[in-house]
């Protein structure tokens, strides 16, 4: 008998719960804990539905709790292995060469956004309306991703950026939170918010020279790195969140 529905439900539950809570779920199953007890003890936002579906799949497929616990432990181990594996790739925009295969900045940026399921953090100096980027961000927002973008302001750039506020490039994305560096112009007269990066779910980090503009994504020579797994994506996200918490980064209001 196929157990693909149960296996998919077990994987989805671990993905929703994360590593620590996934281990707790395996322990509850091993002790034959009920669905109600699991929902009460785990109580993880956005995971209740996945946990309930796992228990329902166990019943449909007649999977004993001990066997279900073994499956969950297997998924937790796989997640640990994937987390600890680090893959670093270079990303370029501009002329290509036969000796070095490259991945275009535009496509990598869209891939990072499409990968996000819970959180997307990004920073840019300049920004201009860019349809492909707007579509990807809008789709992410519609599937429930919390999106925070830090952009430089015209005032902060002190004449080096022209035209409309960079933040306006994201105005059409529903629920997107815009931030800026609230430095004191007296203490930081020549400073710029010059970081350019995107972090998806604290697992994938795209870091490079490209702004969130169409010219940077398609026409300029830009270089960056894409880091999947390991500490770098998590630490980058934690740093941005801490800057927000400390009030160094503040919500942008026109």
Report what the structure shows.
- This protein has 9 helices and 8 strands.
- The chain has about 250 residues and is α+β, with helices and mostly antiparallel strands.
- The protein folds into 2 domains: about 5-85, no CATH class; about 85-250, Endonuclease, Chain A (2-Layer Sandwich), CATH 3.30.870.10.
- Strands 1-7-6-5-2-3-4-8 form an 8-stranded mixed sheet, sandwiched between helices.
- Strand 3 (about 145-150), helix 7 (about 155) and strand 4 form a beta-alpha-beta unit.
- Helix 1 packs across helix 3, helix 2 runs antiparallel to helix 3 and helix 5 packs parallel to helix 6.
- The model has no long low-confidence stretch (mean pLDDT about 90).
What's the CATH topology name of the largest domain?
A: Endonuclease, Chain A
Shape summary: elongated
Question: For the CA atoms, what is the radius of gyration?
Answer: 22 Å
CATH architecture of the largest domain: 2-Layer Sandwich
Relative helix content: 40-55%
Strands in their spatial order, largest beta sheet: 1-7-6-5-2-3-4-8
Q: What's the CATH H-level homologous superfamily of the largest domain?
A: Endonuclease Chain A
Which segments are poorly predicted (pLDDT under 50) over 5 or more consecutive residues?
none
- Overall tally of domains: 2
Number of helices: 9
C-alpha end-to-end distance: 60 Å
What fraction strand?
Answer: 15-25%
In short:
It is built from 9 helices and 8 strands. The protein is α+β, with helices and mostly antiparallel strands. A hairpin with a 3-residue loop joins strand 5 (197-200) and strand 6 (204-208).
């Amino acid at each position: 008998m196929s157990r693909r529905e149960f296996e998919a439900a077990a994987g989805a539950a671990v993905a929703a719960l994360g590593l620590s809570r996934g281990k707790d779920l395996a322990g509850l199953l091993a002790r034959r804990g009920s669905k109600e007890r699991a929902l009460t003890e785990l109580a993880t936002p956005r995971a209740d539905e996945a946990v309930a579906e796992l228990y329902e799949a166990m019943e449909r497929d007649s999977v004993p709790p001990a066997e279900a616990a073994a499956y969950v432990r297997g998924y937790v181990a796989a997640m640990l292995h994937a987390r600890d594996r680090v893959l670093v790739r270079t990303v370029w925009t501009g002329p290509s060469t036969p000796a070095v295969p490259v991945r275009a900045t535009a496509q990598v940026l869209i891939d990072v956004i499409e990968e996000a399921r819970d959180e997307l953090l990004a920073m840019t100096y300049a920004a201009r309306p860019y349809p492909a980027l707007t579509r990807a961000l809008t789709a992410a927002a519609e599937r429930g991703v919390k999106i925070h973008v830090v952009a430089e302001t015209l005032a902060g750039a002190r004449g080096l950026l022209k035209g409309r506020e960079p933040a306006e490039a994201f105005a059409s994305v529903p629920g997107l939170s815009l931030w800026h560096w609230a430095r004191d112009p007296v203490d930081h007269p020549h400073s710029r918010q010059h970081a350019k990066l995107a972090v998806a779910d604290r697992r994938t980090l795209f870091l490079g020279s490209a702004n969130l503009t169409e010219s940077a994504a398609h026409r300029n020579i830009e270089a960056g790195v894409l880091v999947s797994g390991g500490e770098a994506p998590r630490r980058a996200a934690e740093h941005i969140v801490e800057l927000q918490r400390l009030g160094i980064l503040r919500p942008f209001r026109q």
